[in-house]
Design goal:
This protein has 205 residues and is of the alpha+beta class. It contains five helices and 14 strands. The chain is globular.
Length: 205
């Protein structure tokens, strides 16, 4: 028997209420902690939780960037200028410092300094990575896709090189999820770690 439900028309939600509801039901969301370098050398670091993989071969990811005060965020500005970025992944040890970089800092502010993070050089792009990140992925811009009727732009990026902390890579080429200990986004100011890990094999047809 169907459970009782509340039906909400998204057109009836005012202001940011649709956004708040969406981010509390599409959970947990992985976090792309994106470092970029402007053409003037300005360094930026910001987290995005509208993020996921879209292709495995060649490896390709997407993340969605909104606006700030009616202008493109620094991440999008820099990617447009240089065509590259590094997607750093967040573990529990870095969660608080990641949130510090989510502040509405001015363009000239270096979020690495705000969060007291060291950089590490990349190999195929000029943008540095977060030295303490358990995993970082050097990436090149493939396509920018404006989302109709929104202020968001989807960034499609091709992964060029993976940097994985020693001890995390398993023999069959996957990452140990327990050792990785990734942090994911929930609604409001809530975050989560993995908790229970289930292994469920798909059926053989």
């Amino acid at each position: 028997m169907p459970q009782p439900t509340i039906s909400i028309d998204s057109a009836d939600l005012e202001g940011r209420n649709a956004y708040r509801l969406l981010i509390s039901v599409v959970v947990p969301r992985p976090i792309a902690w994106v470092s970029t370098l402007g053409s003037d050398g300005s360094l930026n670091l910001a987290p995005y939780s509208f993020f996921n993989g879209v292709s495995g071969s060649p490896p390709t990811v997407m993340f969605s960037v909104g606006q700030r005060a009616g202008r493109p965020k620094d991440t999008l500005r820099n990617i447009k200028e240089t065509g590259e970025c590094v997607i750093n992944l967040v573990d529990r040890a870095l969660a608080e410092r990641m949130v510090k970089t989510a502040g509405e800092w001015e363009y000239e502010v270096n979020e690495f300094d705000i969060a007291e993070l060291e950089t590490a050089p990349s190999e195929l792009v000029k943008t540095p990575r977060v030295a303490a990140a358990p995993i970082a992925m050097e990436a090149r811009l493939l396509q920018l896709v404006p989302v109709p009727d929104t202020t968001n732009t989807i960034v499609l990026a091709r992964i060029l090189r993976f940097h994985i902390r020693e001890g995390l890579l398993l023999p069959k080429g996957t990452v140990d999820p327990v050792g990785f200990d990734p942090v994911a986004r929930l609604g409001r100011a809530h975050y989560t770690t993995l908790g229970e890990i289930m292994t469920i094999l798909r059926p053989t047809v």
